[in-house]
Structure of Radical SAM protein:
Amino acid sequence: MHLRKTKRKSPVLKPPAFGCLRGTPSVNLTRGCLHACVYCYARAFPETPRSEVWLYENLPEKLSEEIRRLSLRGKLPSSVTFSTASDLFQPHPEVRRLALEVLRMVLEAGLKVSFLTKGFIPEECWALFADYSSLIHPRIGLVSVSRDYHRLFEPRTAPPPVRLTQLERLSTLGLNPSVRIDPVIPGLTDREEAVEALFRRLSLCGVEEVSVSYLVLRPGVIRQMARELPAGIFRNLLKYYAGQPWQKVITSAVTKLARKEIREAGYALFREVGRAYGIRVRVCGCKNPDLPFEDCIPWERESPGEKFSKLPLFAGKVYNSKDADRFSGSRISKTP
Ligand code: SF4
């Protein structure tokens, strides 16, 4: 995919008005994301460019000016998060350079930083993490340790062993990284042996908390998956959503959730395996509006004076055993 430079016109430190991130500005360095994961809902936004990714080259200047102005007015937010619709650490030198510059800028301004990534964290960022360890809240997206899952669903992201190594390194720095297991692919990554393999490796990396949520379908995501997944896998996946209504979830009015009994059984399994490994499991409340609400904000709730919302507002076996084994992660031997 081609990277094109462009100028951002709208404010950078603008809080998104949804979910657990309500009230916390979310910074995207790019429009579109070079990882191009098969299930990515942001790819299907009408405003997302189709065959290229736009890099906001003027982000540092804009950000610097906004920090200056908001500080003068006493309105500088206490935290920022990267990112809701793109990955902070994408595989391109220009994006890496911008990520480092912007991270340094917000940390030097004293803001807490949360990021969620499936990418390679550049070497230059590690020194920054060490220097500002009290301000960094890292989250790594990792759904499965299976190479087949990685190849099919998110082949441009950092492979699972790399993400595990990064988790270990973040733990060693005392940054207490958490893991976002999203999207759980029903019938594939929620199989007991797959969950067990994932949690075993996470515990070895010092992970103490995960948030988890099943894949939600939207029309654009369904079209993407139909194009990019093997036909058999795609067809079988849809069975878990059969008969489900389109409904409003977070900002989209046309979302399908996996059937409730599938998600309930899956989350119960995640909790059970989590307990066995001493890992706390939170179920994402935003993407499961029909279940008891749990938040999965990347940091502990703070005093009411700080800029956090209280609550987000929202208005069987399918694969044969050979297929399933490919997704259990049992073929990965070189992970910690
Ligand atoms: S890394 Fe995140 S934002 Fe980027 S394509 Fe994958 S799901 Fe979308």
